[in-house]
Amino acid sequence: MCDAFGPRRIQGDVSLSSSFAIDVPEALLRRAQRGEASAFEQIYRRFERPVFTLALRLTGQREEAQDVLQDTMMRLFDRIGDFRGESPFWGWLRQIAVNESLMRLRRRARQGLAEEADDEALESQDLLLPPAAADAALLGQALQRLPDATRSVIWLYHAEGYTHDEIAGLMGKTASFSKSQLARGTRRLRELLRIETEVHPHA
């Protein structure tokens, strides 16, 4: 398994990676744990973008990603006193954001809502991927065209560094489910990327 913030390859030079590994000064954490509003605001500003980006990658919808951001931060404020520094702060907060995102996906599945990303999300690649090159943008667009569960498995495995057992626990599935979604999604991504690169040969 790679480092939690390191990329895993999908195809050729195209990879997924989580771009955020933010340190939080211990003094700032202590102030927040004492209930200082200004400290909470600083932490919110530090993690607003990475939490939103992760939520948007998993849910595929900006409105839901914004809701996940707010819910995650509310849980953070409620539970920050439980953080003991035994793991990186972003890893701890990221787990809350992942749980909130997957909970919304389960709710969406129960309600039978379509698994299609909205147009605004598809047009927001600058928020989601480093301004590397066109192949990264094409990968982002292809990811949004996958079903919710498949996209979630791919992102959690490749970008966030979760194992299949960990993904299974998060999603209430089996490790075999995670592996099959990863294999199926990777094949589909390759198909989509071939199509996109043929349509945009100079990308």
Outline the secondary-structure elements:
Layout: E1 8-11, E2 14-16, H1 26-33, H2 37-59, H3 62-79, H4 89-111, H5 119-122, H6 125-128, H7 134-144, H8 148-159, H9 164-171, H10 175-199
Antiparallel strand pairs: 1-2
Helix pairs in contact: 1-2, 2-3, 2-4, 3-4, 7-10, 8-10, 9-10
Protein described:
Keywords: Sigma factor, Transcription, Transcription regulation. Residues 138-189 form the RNA polymerase sigma factor 70 region 4 type domain. Strands 1-2 form a two-stranded antiparallel ribbon. The protein has 10 helices and 2 strands. The chain has 203 residues and is mainly alpha-helical. The chain is 67% helix and 3% strand. It is elongated. The chain has helices at 26-33, 37-59, 62-79, 89-111, 119-122, 125-128, 134-144, 148-159, 164-171, 175-199, and strands spanning 8-11, 14-16.
DSSP E strands, number: 2
CATH class of the largest domain: Mainly Alpha
CATH fold category name of the largest domain = Rna Polymerase Sigma Factor, Chain: A
Low-confidence stretches: 1-7, 9-14, 114-134
Number of domains: 2
Organism: Arenimonas caeni
InterPro entries: RNA_pol_sigma-70-like (IPR039425), RNA_pol_sigma-70_dom (IPR014284), RNA_pol_sigma70_r2 (IPR007627), RNA_pol_sigma70_r4_t2 (IPR013249), RNA_pol_sigma_r2 (IPR013325), RNA_pol_sigma_r3/r4-like (IPR013324), WH-like_DNA-bd_sf (IPR036388)
GO molecular function, one term: sigma factor activity
Keywords: Sigma factor, Transcription, Transcription regulation
